[in-house]
TrEMBL record:
Pfam families: MHYT (PF03707). This is Integral membrane sensor signal transduction histidine kinase. The chain crosses the membrane at residues 12-35, 42-70, 76-95, 107-126, 138-160, 172-193, 213-237. Keywords: Kinase, Membrane, Transferase, Transmembrane, Transmembrane helix. It comes from Caballeronia terrestris. InterPro entries: MHYT_dom, Rev_trsase/Diguanyl_cyclase. GO terms for molecular function: kinase activity. It comes from the Bacteria. GO terms for cellular component: membrane. The lineage of its organism: Bacteria, Pseudomonadati, Pseudomonadota, Betaproteobacteria, Burkholderiales. Residues 5-200 form the MHYT domain.
């Protein structure tokens, strides 16, 4: 039994993957700025949920883009388990990309865990269809899809870590380019994994009456866009507030260094600075 892909939903899955990837890169930079803040664990957990929802949504939109000539639905419990896997994988990714120095060993270990987790999320989501007889997989394609997921995860972690420092030249352009590369890698792994699935002629979906595919497509798309765009907006607002607070603190430190704490009058350092400036102007 063969199925066909809906081109519109395939393109939508790529857009969601890009949005999730860009959110991950921005979050890694934002978490780096929050390294000493008390709220960093909360941001890490929230970021993992946001990124996990994005990755999971891309996966399910990609699955919903694949139409079989039979009624298809998804088991709620197994579907929820695949979402939990995506969130756990995202937590590992953000914690790795936003903390300390990224050694080659830590990069490979975290990337392998993340890649295996993404692949597990994919095949768990496929299992939620509960086909009878069960889906048969071409094992070399399955193994290759896991390998692609691991390589893509390592590359994604490295890109997120490299681009996490704010203020670098052309940072926005580089993050956009990195998000495009990550999105192509994530969607490539998904559709390659889908190609490993073989549906026996006369198969029946036992979850056909549980979660309707059309309803799920609408909910997943709306939720993913809301969560990802909301996270980016919140991160942008927080970064702006952080920059304003930093400039205000720098002005306060400069004032304290050039004025007497008791009388508030200019001190010797302020006088020396003014004299040096006057000498420079006279020299010109």
């Amino acid at each position: 039994m063969t199925g066909v892909y809906n081109p519109l939903l395939v393109c939508l899955s790529l857009v969601v993957a890009f949005l999730a990837s860009y959110t991950a890169v921005e979050l890694s930079g934002g978490l780096n700025a929050l390294a000493s803040a008390k709220r960093r664990p909360l941001w890490l957990a929230g970021g993992a949920v946001s990124m996990g929802v994005g990755i999971w949504s891309m996966h399910f939109i990609g699955m919903l883009a694949f139409s079989l000539p039979i009624a298809v639905g998804y088991d709620f419990t197994i579907t929820a388990a695949s979402l939990l896997l995506a969130i756990c994988v995202s937590f590992i990714a953000l914690a790795t990309a936003s903390r300390g120095a990224l050694s080659l060993r830590r990069l490979c270990v975290a990337g392998t865990i993340m890649g295996v987790g993404v692949a597990a999320m994919h095949y768990t989501g496929m299992h939620a269809m509960q086909m009878a007889p069960e889906i048969e997989y071409t094992m070399w394609r399955v193994a290759l899809s896991v390998g692609v997921a691991i390589v893509a995860s390592i590359a994604a972690l490295w890109l997120a870590f490299t681009l996490r420092t704010p203020g670098a030249e052309n940072l926005v352009f580089k993050r956009l380019a990195a998000a495009i590369v990550m999105a192509i890698a994530i969607t490539g792994m998904h559709y390659f994994g889908m190609s490993a699935a073989n549906f026996t002629a006369g198969s029946v979906c036992l979850s056909g009456e549980k979660l309707d595919a059309n309803w799920l497509a609408l909910v997943v798309t709306a939720t993913s866009f809301t969560v990802l765009v909301g996270t980016l907006a919140l991160l942008g607002f927080h970064t702006s507030s952080l920059s304003i607070s930093l400039r205000r603190a720098n002005r306060q430190l400069h004032y304290l260094g050039t004025h007497d704490a008791l009388t508030k009058l200019p001190n010797r350092q302020h006088l020396s600075s003014r004299i040096a400036r006057a000498v420079d102007e006279c020299a010109r």
